[in-house]
Design a protein that fits this description.
Blueprint: H1 7-26, E1 32-33, H2 38-49, E2 53-55, H3 58-68, E3 75-78, H4 80-91, E4 104-109, H5 111-122, H6 135-140, E5 143-145, E6 150-156, H7 157-173, H8 177-186
Antiparallel strand pairs: 1-3, 2-3, 4-6, 5-6
Helix pairs in contact: 1-2, 5-7, 7-8
């Protein structure tokens, strides 16, 4: 499947998939037929090119024609991939609240920092000093601000120190830029040898 060029394109794709699903749910035979609006047909053909809907073959069109009592020249329905994409989009976390909660602070991370943090929380089950409670969920529900080009999270002090530890691990195995930026922006930088797994220096 082709990767879409940005979030806007992804939103349009989901909108078109939901339209296919809405038509399909109303159809007795489970296919969206050529009686649909031309603009919808164009969008559905685009989805077919992405493998997100399947187009009826000649045999299926013949069966649909007999069902409808007229020639059916075109019909589509969600493919397994399209169905899964809609299911995934349906369970994505809702955007976080507008402001930080009690004891939380708005933290804005560059994409490279967010990538490093995702690696850290993804290893939670393998680490002796795993991410602080709630950090995994904060990473999972982070919101991308297109204006600032930053990922926004609401972190407690403990979660910020834990993130600093993750950036330190990344520093020793990849790039120091992410840890340095976090320390510069929020004054939290992990120093090994402290009692705490992620101490402020």
């Amino acid at each position: 499947m082709t990767v879409w060029g940005g979030e806007v394109q992804g939103d349009r794709t989901l909108e078109a998939l939901r339209a296919v699903w809405a038509y399909q749910e109303k159809a007795e035979q489970g296919w969206v037929l050529d009686a649909a609006a031309p603009s919808f047909q164009r969008r559905a053909r685009s989805l077919a090119g992405e493998g997100l809907v399947e187009t009826a073959d000649r045999e299926t069109r013949a069966e649909l024609s007999a069902w409808e009592g007229r020639p059916v020249r075109w019909a589509v329905r969600l493919s397994a991939t399209g169905h899964d994409l809609l299911a995934y989009a349906g369970v994505r976390p809702a955007p976080m609240s507008l402001g930080p909660g009690p004891g939380e602070r708005l933290v804005e991370l560059a994409p490279s920092q967010m990538t490093a943090l995702r690696v850290f929380v993804g290893l939670a089950g393998e680490l002796k000093s795993p991410p602080a409670t709630g950090l995994v969920e904060q990473v999972r529900t982070a919101v991308y601000d297109r204006g600032t080009r930053r990922w926004q999270l609401h972190l407690t002090q403990e979660q910020m120190e834990s993130a600093a530890y993750g950036f330190w691990l990344h520093r020793l195995t990849g790039s120091a830029a992410e840890a340095n930026r976090f320390g510069r922006d929020y004054g939290v930088l992990y120093s090994p040898g402290k009692d705490s797994p992620a101490a402020i220096s």
